[in-house]
Amino acid sequence: VFVNPLQFGAGEDLDRYPRTLDADLDLAGSAGADHVLAPSAEEVYPGGPPEVRISAGPMGERLEGASRPGHFDGMLTVVGKMFHLVRPDLALFGQKDAQQLALVRRMVRDLAFGIEIVAVPTARESDGLARSSRNRYLSPDERAAALALSRALYAGQDAAARGEGPEAVRAAARRVLDRAAQAAPPVVLDYVALVDPADFTEITGAFPGAAVLAVAARVGATRLIDNLPLAPASGPAPLPGATP
Length: 244
What we know:
7 helices; globular
């Protein structure tokens, strides 16, 4: 459990990011955890921010990387360090941060970490909102407005299940978000993208198979992300390598 300062850019919410260690420990204990690693920033980065870091490369500059420059370099650096400290056989990463998941898999493969990365399906509230630490920033009206993100993804999923192509999938999602942008409080779109789950490049032309439909938007002062893995004419599909 670690809020990593390397992942936060100037003007982001590092200082107010939720830190709920007691609740996290209770949750881990109830799930059967024997140990929890919860270091301080000084323990993870003795002597200050590290001079040597892991670069996310071109994939780290797309979508979330374009919106948050340097974010994925900071993420991979701390994940790599945690892997060395813990030396796990398996590491589980939430599918909600699909680009992070893809980058961790690429790092493990490219740098021969010898760890199996397992994708965990996105946890959602009963109304479809993806669970996130940042949801606690939302007022009741903003939380209701934020449901547009998951509704947009499900609209795109329906289009894919009907056998429609990439442009129609994106258009179906965007229609939901365009309506939400006119509501109060508005949902201010950052991006909606249909990408290859291996490298997060935009899918154009014929639908190639597995894909990720991803969205990012602001509701009030809070930036939220969400995504769904898709496959044409067959509904949702797991990301490559994910366990059922």
